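Write out the bound-state structure for adenosine monophosphate.
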Amino acid sequence: MGCCDVPGLMPIEDALNAMLSRITSISDTLQLPLAEALGFVLAEDILSPINVPPFDNSAMDGYAVRRDELMLNGPLPVAGKSFAGQPFIGHWPAMTCIRIMTGAQIPTGCDAVIMQEQAQVTEQGIQFSVSEVKANANIRPTGDDIQQGDVVLNKGERLTVRDIPMIATLGVSHVRVFRKPKVAFFSTGDELKPLGEPLQTGQIYDSNRYGIKPLIEKFGCEAIDLGIIPDCPTQLTATFEQAQVQADVVVTSGGVSVGEADYTKDILAELGEIGFWKLAIKPGKPFAFGSLNHAWFCGLPGNPVSAVLTLYVLVQPMLAKLAGHTAWQAPLSIPAITRSRFKKSPGRTDYQRGVYSIENGQFVVESTGNQSSGAFRSMSLANCFVVLEQERGHVEAGETVNIQLFNASLY
Ligand code: AMP
Ligand code: MG
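---
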């Protein structure tokens, strides 16, 4: 235990290590048409079967010339055309030029393309108004972007909107990817009402599933929504059983604390095993991790900020590992100067919600206000977490803190 550890609360780094050391990646793969592969993790390196571009071609609309003929400064008659997809073929007579368009193949013997803005059509041919022309000017050589055999993307990378057209330029129509992890999730609580129905006394809307589903999908997993389950041990047990046969991971929200209607942990202990419970983080202390017979288990606290935060901070790295997404990186941490006070007591690592901006090249950060774990507005307004170390107390305006910029999953 470190100097500031609280008995019974596991530091977040230990929790992450404990989870990651147990998870092994899914090895099932599938072959997908490229257009359907967005968001999947590559199960193979992508090597280029061709040079890109596959032939020397023009970067400009203009005229293909031989520089030694150009030096003579006389007009050069046009001997033919090379258009994109319709190359010039045949003999190219001396002391002539070839009309050429962007993307068109460079005729054999050509060592420069002169853009049409530097050319004038005269009766005797094309008169060029250029003084010095570099060898291979305006020519995009074969393999300029990618050489045949180059590794363009690596196994373990998750395919982005930028990667798909990259692979398409290689002519690769199908890619081998890992199966996406399946995550079944449900909300627990007698007080929870589905959207669209009026609230009775003591009820609130179930907002957590609306954060959990898109986050799971943005983490590159398949989400299976099992709805709202009341605080009833029989129904909860049945749903756990149903969930674990459908999914690789079961995620619940609520019922994981120490209240009299908190059954999640007992059911986990009965059906599987509790890996750890209760972390030295705020919000999110009651987070539970463990295993069921057929699936991993993550119990998120019910408070909406805690649920999204623990999913993001703890479950996301675990899902990345499960998905074989070895290129995954933790969200970027940057030092910033506080522009407001952050209340904090020592003992837990705080993930307060902040808004960062850049002033004179320096990151600065302000609190989003009410930091209650039930006040979701603090998440909606934020663009970063202000991560305050376990041992730290109140932070005054002007102090330096570490901020963690939200990654793309929260947008
Ligand atoms: P629990 O973890 O079940 O003790 O719940 C903690 C707090 O979060 C309580 O105020 C619950 O009403 C609230 N809560 C639990 N589940 C949800 C949910 N799905 N959506 C919104 N609030 C919730
Ligand atoms: Mg509850």
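---
Residues 304-322 form the longest helix (19 residues).
The pocket of magnesium ion (ligand 2) is lined by residues 188-189, 254-255, 261, 302 (CB under 6 Å).
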